[in-house]
Write a structure and sequence with these properties.
By secondary structure, the protein is α+β, with helices and mostly antiparallel strands. It contains eight helices and 17 strands. It has one domain: 4-Layer Sandwich (Chorismate synthase, AroC fold), CATH 3.60.150.10. It binds ligand EPS.
Length: 366
């Protein structure tokens, strides 16, 4: 399954070391401005080679629009976006072509398909996330223009390091998307030491959507929170997703967890902006856990395709923490879910007007 969404349907294709990666977006409304330059900023935020803290692969990530647009505007027909791969170094993968990296999808792809593209991990590479970010540029633009919805994220934890402050202004000023500018030197030292040691570490990304009106989502199958969880889980290396207080809700009392309100606004946001699978009008808050990268130069015990024991060492250009550049990917998946749910809501409930005064969203962002 390489297709995501019901009305705003995104299909991605391509391998990390193939000639190109791309996507087809079907069901996109007509009349949206679209030009190659508008993809550059978000693709650069996600890309490798932008700092010493991520993989050194250098891709220009230039988007070609092959269909679905006329004179810079979407026409309602399928949009095809293409990015050519220009800096693949496949020889890095020769020595592990017949081995399974411990903790990597090498093993499961092999047993599922009986064949795999070992070059750069093929489609199990983080490179696949590029097209999600590209497709979401259109979704982010539409959500903002039509509803004033803003989708943003930040790195909320790396290893055991937690931010000591949370300021949106700091997030885009450092290569980690870290919300506390004062801690960046500490982070740099931490990741430098990690990279030198040859090891990797996990991370947590928090993604927040503001401006979502109450009513988006489905009450049973297709709940907004279920689709957000599935969307985040579909990102390579994700091992956990929480909505609002998530697993902390387990130890809370009902009197603590419920979000009380006055006519001036909600007084808390433990629910993460979703009640009964439907947006409440508060900020939607999703937290996503990334596992440590499994491509390590530290030797590990493993087996090869013949079932023989081997010592596995992965060389090449790898991220010591894939979560460092995962913020734009989580934002993209949130935007794609919201765009799809907005169109579904418009289709079924577009005629339902304001039924009573809305409670202002006064709490719950970073
Ligand atoms: C990746 C390994 C590296 C990263 C890649 C993700 O690939 P390569 O060995 O080809 O340099 O550079 O990330 C990207 C290319 C990207 O655009 O995100 C992996 O194993 O997932």
């Amino acid at each position: 399954m390489n297709t995501f969404g019901q009305l705003f349907r995104v299909t991605t294709f391509g391998e990390s070391h193939g000639p190109a990666i791309g996507c087809v977006i079907d069901g996109c409304p007509p009349g949206i401005r679209i030009e190659p330059a508008m993809f550059a900023a978000d693709l650069a935020r996600r890309a490798t080679g932008k700092s010493r803290h991520t993989s050194a692969r250098h891709e220009a990530d230039l988007v070609e629009i092959l269909s679905g647009a006329y004179e810079g505007t979407t026409t309602g027909t399928p949009i095809t976006l293409l990015i050519r791969n220009e800096d693949a170094r496949s020889k890095d993968y020769d020595r592990i072509a017949e081995q399974f990296r411990p903790g990597h999808a090498d093993y499961t792809y092999w047993h599922k398909y009986g064949i795999r593209d070992p070059r750069g991990g093929g489609r199990s590479s983080a490179r696949e996330t590029t097209m999600r970010v590209a497709a979401a540029v259109i979704a982010k633009h539409w959500l903002d223009e039509h509803h004033g919805v803003k989708v943003r994220g930040y790195l909320a934890q790396i290893g055991s390091l937690l931010p000591t402050a949370c300021e949106w202004a700091a997030v885009e000023s450092n290569p980690f998307f870290w919300p506390d500018a004062g801690q960046v030197p500490e982070l740099e030292n931490y990741v430098d030491a990690l990279r030198k040691s040859g090891d990797s570490v996990g991370a947590r990304v928090t993604t927040v959507a503001t401006g979502v009106p109450p009513g988006w989502g489905e009450p049973v199958y297709g709940k907004l929170d279920a689709e957000l969880a599935a969307a985040m889980m579909s990102i390579n290396a994700v091992k956990g997703v929480e909505i609002g207080d998530g697993f902390a809700s387990v130890s809370q009392k009902g009197s603590e967890h419920r979000d009380e309100a006055t006519p001036a606004g909600f007084l808390s946001n433990h629910a993460g902006g979703i009640l009964g699978g439907i947006s409440s009008g508060q900020a939607i808050i999703v937290s996503t856990a990334f596992k440590p990268t499994s491509s390590l130069r530290l030797p590990a015990r493993g087996v090869d395709v013949r079932g023989e024991p081997v010592e596995i060492v992965t060389t090449g250009r790898h991220d010591p923490c894939v979560g460092i550049r995962a913020t734009p990917i989580c934002e993209a998946m949130m935007a794609l879910v919201l765009m799809d749910q907005a169109l579904r809501h418009r289709a079924q409930c577009g005629d339902v007007g304001e039924v009573s005064p809305r409670i202002p969203a006064s709490a719950g962002s970073a």
